Amino acid sequence: MKKYKFLIGLFISIFSFIGFSQDRPNFVFILTDDQSYGYLGCTGNEIVHTPNIDKMATEGVLFTNAHVTSAICTPSRVSILLSQYERKHNVNFNSGTSVAPEAWEKSYPVIMRDKGYYTGWVGKNHAPVGHGGYASGLMEESFDYWYAGHGHLGFYPKENHEIFKDAEADTQIEIVQEGVNDFLDSNSRRLEGALHFLENRPKDQPFILSVNFNLPHGASTSTMEMRATDDSIYRTLYRDIEIPLPDNYLAKEAIENPKLPADLLKVEERQDIYDYVDRPSTLKERYIRQLEAMTGIDRLVGDLRTKLETMGIDENTIIIFTSDHGLFMGENGIGGKALCYEKTTHVPLLILDPRLPRKLKGKQKDALVQSIDIAPTILSLAGIEKATTFQGIDISPLLNDKKSEIREYIFTENLWSTQFGNPRCEAIQNKKYKYIRYYANTTFPASKKIKTAEELGLPEAKMLYTVHDSDIAIYRDYVTAPLNGEQPVYEELYDLENDPTEQVNLIKQSNYSEILATLKLAWSKAIKQARGEGKPKVVRYTVESQFESNNKLQLE
C-alpha cells in the first residue's frame, strides 16, 4: 500500500512539475496570410472594419516595426515554428526539402507539449515536416488537437480538404471558428474530422492553440464567389464605397521606368494569380475581398475573446496576432511578394497579455522585432527555456518596459528565385536606413515551361511546381554563394525615415557612402549569423522522394 501511495505521489509531483496547472498562461497564436502592415484600423487603415483587433491594440502592445525574415509563405512559417532564418532551416518551395524530425523536435509547439502544454493547430499548414513532407503525418501527430489542411485551403475549404467535411459552415474563417470552439470547449459541437489525442482537454492543463488562416491570401480571395449562403460580410461589405488606389500605384500600361531592372525582376514571368494588379478595376475588386476577409477574421477574434471570457480563462490567456508576410498591390507596378521591401516584410504584431499592469497596456513599440522572435517570447512567457537552436530573441522585456530595444539591425532575405521571375535578394536595415542587394537572375522562364506543357498536353501545375533532386543543389548554392563571395548585380539604399515607401534609391549618392559602408558591414555579419553553424536539418522532399515512398504528389 505504501508503494502505491508513493507512486501516486510521485505521479502528482511529476505532473505538477511539467505544468499541469493554470499557474502558467494559456496562449492563442493567430497567423494571417499575405496581410501587409496597413490592413487594420490600428495600423492606419481608414476603410477596414477591425474593431476587435483594434481593441486588442488598446489593451495590449502593438509592435509597429515588426518584420518577417522571408516574405513567402512556407519559409516564413517554418521560421516562426523553429525560430530560425531560412538560410539556417533551408525549407522553401524550391528547396526540395522538408523539416527533419530532429529539427521539428525543437519547434515551439513540440517543446511546449513536452513541457506539459495541451497543444492545438487549426486552419492552414504550409510547413512540410518529416519524411514525405505533408504526407508524413508527423505534423498531425505532434498536436493534441488537429483540425487543419496542408497547403492552400481556398475560401471554401470543404472542396479541397476532407478533414473539414463535417463543419456546418462552408467558408474558411467560419470553419476555423468551429475548430477554435471545439478545441477550447468540450461542450461545443464535436467535429468528427478533427484529430484528438485526448477526448477532452484537461481543464487544469495550460494550452497553446495556433490559429492559421489562408486569408487574405490571393489563393483564397480569388476563389470567393459571393454565394447566397455566404455571410453578408463576404457579399456586400465595402461594395458601396469608393475604394482608393494604393499610394504609388501604377497600372501595367502606365509603367515607363520599372522599379527594378527588367532582367532582375522579370515581371512577364510573374504568377498569373497576381495579374489583378495590372488594372485599377481588378485591383479594387481584390482589395475589397481582402478587406472583407480581414473583417471576417476580426469577428473571429471578437468571438474568441468572448469565448475565453465566458469560460473564465481570459485573464490568463495571452493572444498573439501577426502575419506571415505582406503583399504588393500594384505599388510601383509590382504584384506578389518574395522581395525585401517594406510592403512585403513589414507586418503587424500584437501581443495581448492580460497579466500586464494597466500602465503598460495600449502602448505602441517601434523596436525592431522579427517573426523569429515569437517562439522564444512564447516560451519565456510560459516559463520554459528556449532551445539552443533558436535564432530569435525574447521580446517580453519590451512588453514590460524593461528594455526599449533588443537589436540594432534586422536581416531579411528571399531565396525563392524561380521561373516566376523573382530575384534572390537580402536586406539589412536599422530604424533609419535599409540596404538591399540583388543577385543575377538566371532562372529558366515560366512562360517557356507553360508553352511546352501546352504543346505536349501536360498539366501546367506539374511543369511549374514540381521540385526535383537536382533542384536541391541549386537552392543550396543560393544559400551559400553570397557567403562565398558572390557579388550583387544591383543594390538599393533607402532612407526609411523620410521615404518609408522606398521610392528614392540613394545608392549612388556620395554623401551616403559612410552610411552605406556601415550597412554593408552589418550585412556581412548578419548573413553569417543567419546561416549559423552545421548542416541544415532537412530531409528530401522532391518528386523522386515522393514516388520512392509511394506517396501522393503534393504540389503546394
From TrEMBL:
The lineage of its organism: Bacteria, Pseudomonadati, Bacteroidota, Flavobacteriia, Flavobacteriales. It holds the Pfam family Sulfatase. This is Arylsulfatase A family protein. Residues 25-384 form the Sulfatase N-terminal domain. It comes from Galbibacter orientalis DSM 19592. InterPro entries: Alkaline_phosphatase_core_sf (IPR017850), GAG_Ulvan_Degrading_Sulfatases (IPR052701), Sulfatase_N (IPR000917). It comes from the Bacteria.
